[in-house]
Amino acid sequence: MTMKTISIINLKGGVAKTVSTINIAYTLVAIHGKRVLIIDNDKQGNTSKFFGLYDPSSYGLSELLTDKKMDVNNVIQQTNYDGLDIITANMNLLRTNKEILMDVSRPQQTRLRKKLEKVKDQYDYVIIDNAPDINMTVINALVASDDVLVPIKIDQFSFDGLEQIIEQIEDVSEFNSDIRFAGCFITMYQRSSVNQQGAELLEQQGYPMFATRVRKTVKVDEMTFSRKPLLDYAKRSTACVDYVALVKEYLEL
C-alpha cells in the first residue's frame, strides 16, 4: 500500500479537529493495524499536548519546514501507542509562516511533501491536524495531502469557511493534482431539529458528506483529560462507535 496523507481542516475553531485527528489515527492503528504518523500543524500544539509531547524547545514541524537540511526522521517522536508517531508543533509555527514567505531561494508550497517522501515506506497514513487558518504551513499540508476531511459542528456558522476551503483545494491542485475533497463529517451531533436541518442543508448544497455522524458525549471531554484516545478510554461510548464507523466508511470510499 502506498502512504496516504489526510488533512483534517476547518477554518472555524471548536469543531473537534484535534479530537477527530487523534481518534481517526488511533482507530487506523488499533483496529486496522495501520502505521500512522500524526502531524500537528497548529501552533497551539493541542495534539502534541494530548500525547504529552508538547515542548517549546524541541524540534518539530517548524524546523522541518524552515531548515533545508532537517531530516524528517529527526523530528518524528513516538507516542505511547505502538504504530502511532507524531511530528509536534509549538508557537514557533508563527515564525515559520513568515520565514517560508521570505525565503524565495527554494519552493515554498511543496516543502512538506518533499520531506515526507523519505518516510513513505514507514507509514500507511499521515494525518495532519491543521490550524483554523490558511497560511503557508496549511498550504504545505494541502499540497502534501491526498484527501481532505472537514469536521463540522452544526450551528449558525457551520457553513462559514467551507467555500474558502474548496477554493484553497482548487488553488493547490496546481501543485497537487491528486488532492480530493473526501467529504465533511458532522461532529458533536445531537438529535435535534437544528442538527437535522443543518445536516440536510449541507447535503443540499452538494458538499460530499459522510453518512456517519459523531454524536456528542461527555466522554470526548473526559478523553482530553485522560490523554487516551476513545478506543482506549471509553470504547463503548457513542463517539467512539461513531469514529470507528467513520474510519470504516472512509476506507470504503
Explain what you see.
- The chain has 253 residues and is α/β, with parallel strands linked by helices.
- The chain has a single domain (4-251), classed as P-loop containing nucleotide triphosphate hydrolases (Rossmann fold, 3-Layer(aba) Sandwich).
- It contains 11 helices and 8 strands.
- It has helices at residues 17-30, 46-50, 61-66, 92-102, 111-116, 136-144, 162-172, 193-204, 218-226, 230-233, 238-251; strands at 4-8, 36-41, 76-78, 84-87, 125-130, 147-153, 180-189, 209-215.
- An 8-stranded mixed β-sheet has the order 3-4-2-5-1-6-7-8, with helices on both faces.
- The longest helix is centred in the first third of the chain and has 14 residues, at 17-30.
- The protein is globular, with a radius of gyration of 17 Å.
- The protein starts with a strand and ends with a helix.
- The mean pLDDT is 95.
Summarize the model shown.
The protein is built from 11 helices and 8 strands.
Explain the layout of strands and helices.
Blueprint: E1 4-8, H1 17-30, E2 36-41, H2 46-50, H3 61-66, E3 76-78, E4 84-87, H4 92-102, H5 111-116, E5 125-130, H6 136-144, E6 147-153, H7 162-172, E7 180-189, H8 193-204, E8 209-215, H9 218-226, H10 230-233, H11 238-251
Parallel strand pairs: 1-5, 1-6, 2-4, 2-5, 6-7, 7-8
Antiparallel strand pairs: 3-4
